[in-house]
Task: inverse folding
């Protein structure tokens, strides 16, 4: 009972903040001195780099119509289906811990993608056709990461994220630049690869792997319509603190 | 000393261009001249074009009705925000269209021998500068006409035909954005997405009172309003077959955001084309032979037009920049 009470007190001190020292407890039965693990704490700054995949955004079918007169239904010369293809790119991230549970972060991502148009039902052509244009997508995002305190899956710690960003789409040949916006909500886990002691003697994760899964809302830019497009996003990165 | 030549442009059910002593080429819906190997657009030099209207009506259309319909047709072109051309009604006149009176006159003429011609435009121009001097438009009174708001069965809509002819009057040639089928005695229009398509819709239809993107691009390219050239861009390239240029191919740029179509032709033996007046963004290019109207609606009889190739799409979307060109691209077509 006393041992449990002392252990509880030690844990409480650890959660409250970096421990100024180590709590010791004598295990009388084993004759050993057990040193409870130091309180876990995170550094203020976190840098991350990694890969990011964004799903495709598909637009409504566009018909090339010609008037038939008398208010009749138009003559559709052909139909065109366009999408902004899924893409894999790179991401760099900077985070600043606000509290033990909250971190503000910003990221810069580069995703080379492609605008693809598939032509069908041409009245005068027997086969379909596809036309493409390369697009470079640049994204600058800012958001909040929240970690539920004390929640972990083994050493992996889950988190939730949300934020918004600014998009730039640069077409091939640099003929045109268009701007858009993005919003995201998601979550993930980070897993420590290496831990160490910080300047206050507290143990912290120095390096780890982070996996993000999110829903991303894209608007404007190279997106052909005025609608918001929801696409999946997955990121894998390595971070250091 | 002013040099001049008169051409008659006769159109609607079939169209032909009578040549005089210089080579006249339609370029990007525009009439043009080749002078000293330079291509010059045929257009008005002054910003406001005065016109007269004959004070004679026909059955179903009074003189006042005629004048009002003509005014609406001119207003349709004048309302294009990206075009700077303006027209001014001067006065009714007893002169007939076709008279060399120094006036731009619109009126009725009875031409029963022209049984496939609803209307025609003639013009007098300076063949060294391309400046229009005088144009006249006649409407063939041997056909039944209507100015009814919603059209009248069995009668041709005067305002629609006037919009087309005023396009010629302003310097625009024919557009090939349309589909027809062969019928005894000629062709029947199935669809058209340009008022400047050479064949009219059947009697009773009023669709051609409304300009389409292709028409708007043409008039804006001829008479750009402030900022038009800076805010739009062009697509240029060549159409080739078996390593050689294709003359007379119809090239259409389709806006993949809206489906709107703007077209032009290859007007050189090397197969070069330019499509102008496009808003910035990605476009799909479609190349087809001119087989929905008689070739002489678009080109001179002596031009080596090639219609032996299949409809072809360029495998790249071309992204039009603001105030610039996409950079030349080659599209290869194959024989049918």
Result:
């Amino acid at each position: 009972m006393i041992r449990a009470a002392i252990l509880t007190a030690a844990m409480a001190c650890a959660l409250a903040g970096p421990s100024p020292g180590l709590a010791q407890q004598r295990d009388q039965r084993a004759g050993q001195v057990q040193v409870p693990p130091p309180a876990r704490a995170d550094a203020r700054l976190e840098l991350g780099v990694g890969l990011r995949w964004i799903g495709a955004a598909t637009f409504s079918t566009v018909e090339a119509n010609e008037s038939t007169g008398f208010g009749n239904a138009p003559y559709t010369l052909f139909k065109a289906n366009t999408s902004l293809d899924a893409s894999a790119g790179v991401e760099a991230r900077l985070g600043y811990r606000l509290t033990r549970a909250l971190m503000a972060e910003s990221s810069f991502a580069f995703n080379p993608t492609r605008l693809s148009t598939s032509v069908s039902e041409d009245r005068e052509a027997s086969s379909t056709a596809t036309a493409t244009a390369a697009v470079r997508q640049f994204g600058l995002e800012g958001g909040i990461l929240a970690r539920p305190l004390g929640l972990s899956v083994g050493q992996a710690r889950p988190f939730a994220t949300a934020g918004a960003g600014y998009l730039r789409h640069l077409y091939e040949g640099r003929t045109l630049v268009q701007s858009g916006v993005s919003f995201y909500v998601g979550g993930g886990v980070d897993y420590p690869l290496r831990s160490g002691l910080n300047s206050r003697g507290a143990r912290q994760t120095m390096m780890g792997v982070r996996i993000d899964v999110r829903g991303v809302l894209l608007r404007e830019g190279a997106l052909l319509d005025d609608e918001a497009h929801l696409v999946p996003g997955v990121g894998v990165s390595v971070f250091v603190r | 000393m002013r040099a001049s030549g008169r051409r008659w442009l006769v159109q609607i059910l079939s169209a032909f261009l009578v040549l005089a002593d210089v080579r006249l080429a339609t370029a990007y819906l525009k009439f043009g001249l080749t002078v000293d190997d330079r291509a010059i657009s045929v257009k008005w030099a002054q910003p406001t074009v005065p016109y007269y209207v004959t004070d004679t009506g026909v059955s179903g259309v009074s003189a006042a009705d005629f004048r009002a319909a003509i005014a609406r047709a001119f207003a349709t072109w004048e309302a294009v925000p990206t075009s700077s051309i303006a027209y001014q009604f001067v006065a009714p006149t007893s002169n007939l269209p076709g008279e060399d009176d120094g006036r731009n006159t619109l009126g009725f003429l009875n031409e029963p021998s022209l049984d496939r011609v609803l209307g025609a435009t003639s013009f007098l121009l300076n063949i060294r500068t391309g400046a229009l001097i005088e144009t006249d438009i006649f409407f063939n009174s041997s056909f039944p006409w209507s100015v009814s708001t919603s059209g009248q069965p069995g009668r041709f809509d005067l305002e629609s035909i006037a919009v087309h002819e005023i396009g010629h009057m302003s310097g625009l040639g024919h557009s090939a954005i349309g589909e027809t089928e062969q019928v005894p005695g000629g062709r029947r229009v199935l669809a058209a997405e340009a008022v400047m398509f050479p064949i009219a819709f059947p009697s009773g239809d009023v669709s051609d009172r409304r300009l389409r993107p292709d028409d708007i691009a043409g008039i804006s390219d001829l008479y750009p309003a402030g900022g038009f050239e800076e805010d739009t861009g062009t697509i240029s390239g060549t159409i080739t077959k078996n390593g050689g240029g294709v003359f007379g191919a119809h090239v259409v740029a389709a806006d993949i955001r809206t489906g709107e179509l703007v077209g032009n032709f290859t007007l050189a033996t090397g197969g070069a084309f330019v499509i102008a007046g496009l808003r910035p963004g990605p476009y799909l290019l479609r190349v087809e032979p001119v087989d929905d109207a008689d070739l002489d609606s678009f080109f001179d009889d002596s031009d080596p037009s090639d219609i032996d190739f299949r409809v072809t799409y360029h495998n790249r979307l071309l992204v039009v920049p603001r105030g610039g060109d996409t950079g030349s691209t080659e599209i290869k077509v194959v024989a049918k």
Chain A touches chain B through 34 residues (CB under 8 Å).
